[in-house]
Amino acid sequence: MNKVFLIGNLTRDPELTETSGGIKICRFAIAVNRNYSGADGERKTDFFNCVAWRALGETVARYTRKGTKVAVTGSIELRNYEDAQGVKRTGVDIVAQDVEFLTPKGNGQDDGFDSPAPSASRGGSKPQLQPFDDDADIPF
């Protein structure tokens, strides 16, 4: 089984591109702190390159930016390639199957992100709540 779960912060803004076949792909990287400190008392950090495909990639690109805390569930994928000097290299990517946004929204600041369009099935507006007296007609 190839399964990975990481929680970390984006190290740069996500990059959304499209394959020649028209499929969206979002590349982003996260920094994950280790849960222990080194001999010097400092916590070590690992950096992971992540890839999200199709709608998930579009969502990540739309609602995250550098510094956003995310939880990524996915799998590890190795890729072999040759660099510009012809040296064979191996790259490691996390292929995201799910990305959960953990950074609280707002704090009274305009975060610059697009708000999702209201769903047609939801009618586009929130229902108004009516006051309810739950102390009336208590049977006991």
Q: Concise description?
A:
This protein has 140 residues and is mainly beta.
Explain this structure.
The protein is mainly beta and 140 residues long. It has one helix and six strands; from the N terminus they run E-E-E-E-H-E-E. A hairpin with a 5-residue loop joins strand 3 (24-37) and strand 4. The termini are far apart.
Number of strands: 6
Largest sheet: 5 strands, mixed, barrel
What percent strand? over 45%
The first-to-last residue Cα distance is 55 Å
- Binned, the helix content reads under 10%
Structural class call reads mainly beta
Number of helices: 1
**Arithmetic mean of pLDDT:** 85
Any idea what the radius of gyration is?
21 Å
Low-confidence parts, pLDDT < 50 over ≥5 residues?
115-124
Order of helices and strands: EEEEHEE
The shape, in one word, is extended
Biggest sheet strand line-up: 1-3-4-6-5
Question: Topology, pairings included?
Answer:
Layout: E1 4-10, E2 15-18, E3 24-37, E4 43-53, H1 54-63, E5 69-82, E6 88-101
Parallel strand pairs: 4-6
Antiparallel strand pairs: 1-3, 1-5, 2-3, 3-4, 5-6
List keywords for this structure.
140 residues; mainly beta; 5-stranded mixed barrel
